[in-house]
């Protein structure tokens, strides 16, 4: 099978790389296998890409190690920054193509996909700016010493990303790692390998030396597991399910104790208090759960509404949710496309069935949308109780629950009654209430009167079982540097 293929999308035609990207070349996998990626809009295969497994990971790690000790080491910090900003420019140059790839392979609306491209370019440019501003301290212990710290790259980094934001997760991961001088073996998600391979081509075009970024398309249990267990990978960064996060941490512990950062699931509360601007709150609540078809780790899936506005809220929220445009990702008006895969579709539909069976009231939705593709209606459940599975577990689809609370205290208690702690929001016009509630909630991000407004300058990550470490902002740089202390004894003669 060839290494490139012309792909036609409803928007444009482009050249799709299909190989694994190792040492700046597209190559076939050692086992010679390929796998198909599916268009979730029509359930048909788009192309087959080459599949990487353990042996390919080994080859990629060797390439990354030799780049780390060789050419990449000689590249100055400001030149690293220049390469990252150049890559950002190329993403923007190719925004139409990249957005079309995301719409085709992931199913997100092409207008939303353009937002992902812009945010990815912004993230890379932001970390490009950091590259020559990574430094330690000088520490004055006594007159006979000179002590200083160096922030050195951790080394070869394994990065495993999911399918919900294929391009954006790629950018979040490589930005801080490259700014700080590491090299990378990236495994993209098997559902959405196409944008990562396209960016690999841009990485070469931008002028990164061979081996600095290697991209493996492949499956979790083979290529992903090989990264987590590898003896010559110094750090692994993972975004995905809590279940797999635990396995990665175990593999890291059982192998070489590689550093681990995890960005996992959530069941984030979105609190609406009686003094909220209800119209505005509903806009954010709607975006909070239905953006990206509910396939967001920080989705505001548990909506907690004060009893004083509960009935009014349900009436307006139902109306708003029913206005969301569901359909073809290539329609520029589309807000909600199909779920990414049959597996995710089935998983979400089984949660919906479970919710109905448990006696939750369907306010709107609750069924598939249309007859082809993995489309699900925006679904709101109300009159739920805390013990229901749909209230406890991450659904990762366009499905939310609305719960009635009687006070601010109860809202906080219910909000925190979860093993997760990724994000939360509170809607109120009282500044004191806003800050009191934000402080009381155990979550990595709290939005006040907004939702899902992530930004590459702001750290993002989880309390409790939602993860370890922070991505984005200057905080992410810490995951990718080892601090070395050098103490020099000064001779007195
Ligand atoms: P997953 O956690 O299995 O997949 C995420 C990534 O991990 C993919 O690249 C996959 O190939 C890789 N992976 C899978 N098993 C692995 C292993 N044993 N070792 C190393 N890497 C492995 O998630 P999946 O099955 O795609 O989705 C299941 C659920 O996970 C979703 O319904 C959702 O609740 C959650 N999820 C959360 C995401 C987030 O952004 N936090 C993203 C994707 C899924
Ligand atoms: Mg796909």
Automatic annotation (TrEMBL):
This is Aldehyde dehydrogenase. GO terms for biological process: acetate biosynthetic process. The active site is at 263. Residues 27-486 form the Aldehyde dehydrogenase domain. Belongs to the aldehyde dehydrogenase family. InterPro entries: Ald_DH/histidinol_DH (IPR016161), Ald_DH_C (IPR016163), Ald_DH_CS_CYS (IPR016160), Ald_DH_CS_GLU (IPR029510), Ald_DH_N (IPR016162), Aldehyde_DH_dom (IPR015590). It is an enzyme of class 1 (oxidoreductase). Gene3D superfamilies: Aldehyde Dehydrogenase, Chain A, domain 1 (3.40.605.10), Aldehyde Dehydrogenase, Chain A, domain 2 (3.40.309.10). The lineage of its organism: Eukaryota, Fungi, Dikarya, Ascomycota, Pezizomycotina. It catalyses: an aldehyde + NAD(+) + H2O = a carboxylate + NADH + 2 H(+). Its EC number is 1.2.1.3. CDD domains: ALDH_F1-2_Ald2-like.
């Amino acid at each position: 099978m060839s290494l490139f293929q012309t792909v036609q999308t409803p928007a444009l035609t482009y050249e799709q790389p299909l190989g694994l990207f190792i040492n700046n070349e597209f190559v076939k996998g050692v086992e010679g296998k390929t796998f198909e990626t599916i268009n979730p809009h029509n359930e048909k295969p788009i192309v087959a890409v080459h599949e990487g497994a353990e042996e390919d990971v080994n080859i990629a790690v060797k390439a990354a190690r030799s780049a780390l000790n060789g050419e990449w080491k000689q590249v100055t910090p400001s030149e690293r920054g220049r390469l990252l900003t150049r890559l950002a420019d190329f993403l923007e140059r190719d925004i139409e193509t990249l957005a079309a790839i995301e719409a085709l392979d992931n199913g997100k609306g092409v207008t939303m996909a353009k937002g992902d491209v812009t945010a990815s370019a912004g993230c890379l440019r932001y970390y490009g700016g950091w590259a020559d501003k990574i430094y330690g301290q000088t520490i004055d212990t006594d007159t006979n010493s000179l002590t200083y710290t160096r922030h050195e790259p951790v080394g070869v980094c394994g990065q495993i990303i999911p399918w919900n934001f294929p391009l954006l997760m790629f950018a979040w991961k490589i930005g801080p790692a490259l700014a700080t001088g590491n090299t990378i073996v990236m495994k993209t998600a098997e559902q959405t390998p196409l944008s990562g391979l396209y960016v690999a081509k841009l990485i070469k075009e931008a002028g990164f030396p061979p081996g600095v970024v290697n991209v493996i398309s492949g499956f979790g249990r083979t290529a992903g597991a090989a990264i987590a267990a590898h003896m010559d990978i110094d750090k692994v960064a993972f975004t995905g399910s809590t279940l797999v996060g635990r396995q990665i941490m175990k593999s890291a512990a059982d192998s070489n104790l590689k550093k681990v950062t995890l960005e996992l699931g959530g069941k984030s509360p979105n609190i609406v208090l009686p003094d909220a601007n209800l119209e505005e709150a509903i806009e954010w609540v709607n975006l909070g759960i239905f953006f990206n078809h509910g396939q967001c780790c920080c989705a505001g899936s548990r909506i907690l509404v004060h009893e004083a506005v509960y009935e009014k809220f349900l009436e307006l929220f139902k109306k708003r949710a029913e206005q969301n445009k569901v359909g073809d990702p290539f329609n520029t008006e589309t807000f909600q496309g199909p779920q990414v895969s049959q597996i995710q579709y089935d998983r979400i539909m089984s949660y919906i069935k479970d919710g109905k069976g448990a006696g939750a009231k369907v306010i709107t939705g609750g069924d598939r949308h249309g007859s082809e593709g993995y489309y699900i209606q925006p679904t709101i459940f109300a009159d739920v109780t805390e013990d229901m599975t749909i209230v406890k577990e991450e659904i990762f689809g366009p499905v939310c629950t609305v719960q009635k609370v009687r006070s601010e205290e109860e809202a906080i208690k219910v909000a925190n009654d979860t093993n997760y702690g990724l994000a939360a929001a509170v809607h109120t016009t009282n500044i004191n209430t806003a800050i009191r509630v934000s402080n009381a909630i155990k979550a990595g991000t709290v939005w006040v009167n907004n939702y899902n407004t992530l930004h590459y300058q702001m750290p993002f990550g989880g309390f409790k079982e939602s993860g370890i470490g922070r991505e984005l902002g200057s905080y992410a740089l810490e995951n990718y540097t080892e601090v070395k202390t050098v103490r020099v004894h000064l001779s007195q003669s």
